[in-house]
Amino acid sequence: MSIETELLFKANIQVAAPIEVGNAGAGIRRVIPITGGTFEGPGMKGEILTGGADYQLIRPDGVTEVVAHYTIQTDDGVPIYITNKGYRHGPKEVIDKIIRGEAVPEGSYYFKTAPVFEVESGSTYDFLNRTIVIGHGVRNPSDVEMTFYQVL
């Protein structure tokens, strides 16, 4: 058995400086506000709306659990809510640079997600309500590049 994927869209998500909550027992909690951005793919494009955030927990084993909640809006006016959960980890020196807001080479760490989409039933994009999607992320100093693939 094999699993096939198809590009859904690429997103450039603009983020503000992290809010450092500190050690919350299970790890270090950080909140990264989402301030905007754009997305585009073969069948959809639009903007990342301001107001979301990435709620990170940096575990004692060095793995960052990411849970981002945000809304995108297509160019034809359809809002889509996203809950994007995943993991980021890699060599300590690379992850430390990311946490400090420094650039690191793409591919030097693992950053994968499993987003869930919510969109109004009957809309052009309601297939997202019943489609498995996987994501690959790249953390840059002032933004996050996410590429989302739908599983066929």
What is the count of structural domains?
Answer: 1
- Determine the CATH topology: Porin
Give the rounded overall mean pLDDT. Answer: 95
Helices, by number, come to 1
What overall geometry do the principal axes of the alpha carbons give? globular
What is the straight-line distance between the termini? 13 Å
Number of strands: 10
CATH top level label: Mainly Beta
Using the 3D structure, state the CATH architecture: Beta Barrel
Estimated share of beta-strand residues: over 45%
Q: Into which percent range does the helicity of residues fall?
A: under 10%
Order of helices and strands: EEEEEEEHEEE
Structural class: mainly beta
**Uncertain parts:** none
The radius of gyration computed from the alpha-carbon positions, rounded to a whole number of angstroms, is 16 Å
InterPro entries: UPF0311
Protein name: UPF0311 protein QY95_03133
Pfam family, one: DUF3237
Organism: Bacillus thermotolerans
